[in-house]
């Protein structure tokens, strides 16, 4: 049982069961609040019947012309609430917002090339790998850096699904600026 | 080429994560273009004013941008020979000066330029760079206010003034300027600024005034609505927030919503709002069914459905038939939990829906969490349930969930530990190929066993309870296998603190990578214990690190309020302000401040000079505690019980503590700094403190204050002074006696032992304040009656200090004679207990705990020795 609703700043104080998870990043104040100030409709939380946060998604709209799209910045589900389809529900919200509010051509996301669990989940939701981004995740040591897969799913506005035709060659992080 | 003020280039947030998440932190193209255009326009203006030509200024920007502040200063000095009154040169000079560390000089430069009332935006923004670096918030407002008064018709200056104001919390002033803007300029955004400012004023005032202000907001929004000027979902959201705050009928709110439905573009969002606003009945029920058809897991819809069928007196069979059909067609948690919720509302305790939920999702980790609110009604059913754990993921989780329910209902006890560990051994192979970052379900057996082991441990015992060591062994082995299990770590931190050890808790805390807002919600367990345990230096360090978030809040959140206004997300402004206050007035923050005050003073009390410096540097605690926010997370650590009490550590420090420290702080401040009035105002509350936990400290502080007042009275008060000093000695003697009792009975070293020693040292420190004649009287030379009273007091304190020191020595002796051997025995006993291979601790572990004890005892001993010198001097 899930209640999907807009994320509010008060929620930032009650995310520990999700954010203590090692793969979930804790951002600074400006990061969360910038998203709320600019794309409040893109920031949603999934709440349990007792009001506990189970997972959340944050995203944004960016790009020019046919590159105008919704971007998944963070999608996370608390360790106790995985494999229940919550990720799917949260992604649905983000896709709805991208399509109906921002009228984008596609939705994209970046995932660690090694994160097989996440990649397979996104594939089930209709995402395909558009390109590989070399050393997108930088670590403190060179061997810690890792490639990202840029995965995309076309929205109805992209009638011919041009936005998801895979690139033949990988790109560097500096090549993917949408601003 | 136009130039922006140096440093205007926004730096990426410090969080390493931001680089991974793409370019979220960079300004949008539109914002950047607008900023550039504004700077260009402003730069042109600067040229028109016959300032120094731009081409001569550019090299200065370049020097500042590249961090070459000395070069910039040389260039400025050279140009200033020709243009000594140039605003831009002087404003840039201030930046270079502040960056070279000459803060006072920089501030003087800025103030001189400000006195000439500049209105040029480039000058204003350049001055703001220095003022912000100097932390002069009020000056930033003043700067813009003056410019606004000078150039009342300049819309851009007015905008900047408003943005300077919204970095403060002076909502009345926000409102004043927003109102004036909305009257002068046609853009409707100013009217929304006015509504937001009025709304915030309403949120921060008394009820009567609040209603008046909210009604005003409502009228302004009604007017905007009739003019068709509610243009987006944010503005509509603000309207709804105002109506909700006013307590308007849901029907009224729904009417407003429906008139602007075209602004809500996602159908699900409309449904969600309607479900919330419709009265229970057919319409709400039908809408709920529509929503459930699309997402049978939607709990808001299920709640609305159940509300409605109950209001409509729908036959139970019909409702159950609907729920059944949803369970068959969609198979979601929501549909199954709805059956439980429906049964609960009818007080029906037939176990069928619980059994169905168990059947459906008993093998998922979320099960226990989901059924917690319903469990008590199904006690017999749970008691009759059996499950033999096997090495499959489903079986392991079923076993874990059954154990959790049994714990919740008190059907198991410490006698079940061996069986639980057997279940762990049977199940654990299923997790072996999981990544270390993944949740391992079998780990839950370990957490349960550890909790049962420590359930019965008396937190005040001064004899080592072997169950604590066995539990630590289980959890440490668990962490080795599952290095990312934060439940293990949260529990371990508490068990170690009970043992009087902090090095491992600090390392565990660090390993969880706790940062940002988590520092406010999760630091308290450690922060509130380290000092009490005697680790004064570690306490100071930990407080310093964990309170960074509050400085971040001061720096970052006001800028976010500006962003919300800039992007027109008007519903976010009140939320951001609330967020700001929740951190600025956080209980955790105030407790950190109280702890910092306590331990920094004890550490600095070598002489009057050190004490004075520490008092002067300390941050004051507020007296008005009503306004504090409680953000400390006391639920994230799972205990699987109805009432979530702390485990082996005291509950979070409360308002009684904060108020006592706030008063003591004022009394000590008054005494040390010679402020009799401050002492007078606060001494009585301390004298009347009845809470047993804080009575001794409060009494000593109060009598120190009273001694000061007697000693500084106009006439001789020898008798009264003597009485107060005697009263201090009485409290101290009683405290020492108590400590001797604790120490005498102790065979181990742990929190109660260390706390007893630390608390008496804290009392000694407070008592020693009354030994400083120079702080007791304002004259250089104390009169004879004071001198003799203090001499006697010092002499009387002497044996007390010695008693404290010998108590510390006694405990140090016990370290080798009883405490360490007992620890070693407990480790062996744990190893020999059932499934002992799961609870092994090494000799190095025993040595580490011993090292911690030694550190704490030598820290406490050093403080006592330091105070012995103070008393003797």
UniProtKB/TrEMBL annotation, chain A:
<dbReference type="Pfam" id="PF00583">
    <property type="entry name" value="Acetyltransf_1"/>
</dbReference>
<comment type="similarity">
    <text>Belongs to the acetyltransferase family. ARD1 subfamily.</text>
</comment>
<protein>
    <recommendedName>
        <fullName>N-acetyltransferase domain-containing protein</fullName>
    </recommendedName>
</protein>
<keyword id="KW-0012">Acyltransferase</keyword>
<dbReference type="GO" id="GO:0031416">
    <property type="term" value="C:NatB complex"/>
</dbReference>
<dbReference type="GO" id="GO:0004596">
    <property type="term" value="F:protein-N-terminal amino-acid acetyltransferase activity"/>
</dbReference>
<dbReference type="InterPro" id="IPR000182">
    <property type="entry name" value="GNAT_dom"/>
</dbReference>
<dbReference type="InterPro" id="IPR051646">
    <property type="entry name" value="NatB_acetyltransferase_subunit"/>
</dbReference>
<feature type="domain" description="N-acetyltransferase">
    <location>
        <begin position="2"/>
        <end position="156"/>
    </location>
</feature>
<dbReference type="InterPro" id="IPR016181">
    <property type="entry name" value="Acyl_CoA_acyltransferase"/>
</dbReference>
<keyword id="KW-0808">Transferase</keyword>
From TrEMBL, chain B:
<feature type="region of interest" description="Disordered">
    <location>
        <begin position="1"/>
        <end position="29"/>
    </location>
</feature>
<feature type="compositionally biased region" description="Low complexity">
    <location>
        <begin position="13"/>
        <end position="29"/>
    </location>
</feature>
<dbReference type="Pfam" id="PF09797">
    <property type="entry name" value="NatB_MDM20"/>
</dbReference>
<dbReference type="GO" id="GO:0031416">
    <property type="term" value="C:NatB complex"/>
</dbReference>
<dbReference type="InterPro" id="IPR019183">
    <property type="entry name" value="NAA25_NatB_aux_su"/>
</dbReference>
<feature type="compositionally biased region" description="Basic residues">
    <location>
        <begin position="1"/>
        <end position="12"/>
    </location>
</feature>
<comment type="similarity">
    <text>Belongs to the MDM20/NAA25 family.</text>
</comment>
<dbReference type="InterPro" id="IPR011990">
    <property type="entry name" value="TPR-like_helical_dom_sf"/>
</dbReference>
<protein>
    <recommendedName>
        <fullName>N-acetyltransferase B complex non catalytic subunit</fullName>
    </recommendedName>
</protein>
